[in-house]
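re the bet — no i am not wrong, look at it urself. input seq straight from the record:
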Amino acid sequence: MTANDSVILVVDDDPLNVKLLIGILESAYEVLFALDGPKAVELAVQEQPDLILLDVLMPGQNGYQTCRQLKAKTDTRDIPVIFISSLSDHEDEAKGLNCGAIDYISKPVNAAIVKSRIGNHLELKHARDLLKQQATIDQLTGIANRRRFDEFLLQEWRTMQREAKPLSAIMIDIDYFKPFNDHYGHAAGDACLSKVAKIMNQVISRPSDLLARYGGEEFVCVLPNTDRDGVEHIAENLRDAVQALAEPHNKSAVAHVVTVSLGCATTIPTSDQLLSNFINSADHALYRAKERGRNCVMSHPLIDDTGDG
């Protein structure tokens, strides 16, 4: 990511201060602005800026309160916050840092200092983001790994529970993959996994969805705000896409090419449900797909988006 790809959110109740900071930054960054704390939090959630410049003294919700709110939210807590304030007392600076800010710049601002501080903190953030991304990507296939899946599933489970919307999952298994490995070799097996992951990731096109490698030749999809009809449609698209790869598999009992079996589950999460049962339902549906003859889609009969089975 280059400097020009970075997004800075400027938060100040004084439009003149906002204009001044935009003038300093707009040649190097995309700059958003908010004139109060609540709007700043809303923009931070929606736009996911790379860094926030936050005024301390604002009417209503001040900068300290806004910073605490940002740091309390899962989707904004890792965004660096730099306070900009006319308060220059060491106690004020300490208070800002204790709220979760990474730096404190005094007004009136100096353009060179602002640019330098922002550049340094963005460089650190981008390095941390890269390490975080590498820790959640499966090295063989390039898609999300099991760790990322666990984090994402829990996050979306809680979100769908709050919003009373359906959450769906698809468990996917490459049919007769052990005979494939035994016949073609492990290098070919690794290449097959990469090809299957790539084509399925093209099918899972919504930014809100996740495809992950679950382990071995198993994959899993998490589909927020997707009902039973929707998940079955996506699962069929995944099955068709893998078969259309026409990857030879002479040791398969269902086709002469690589195919997948898929199990779907859908529910509207509630506080009395167990997340583990939801995934077990998708896994059980996958087992039924294998029993049925593989290269097909099955849904768990006991859990759906209406709750009526």
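see?? Confidence is low (pLDDT under 50) at residues 302-309. told u. also The chain has two domains: 3-133, 146-299. so pay up
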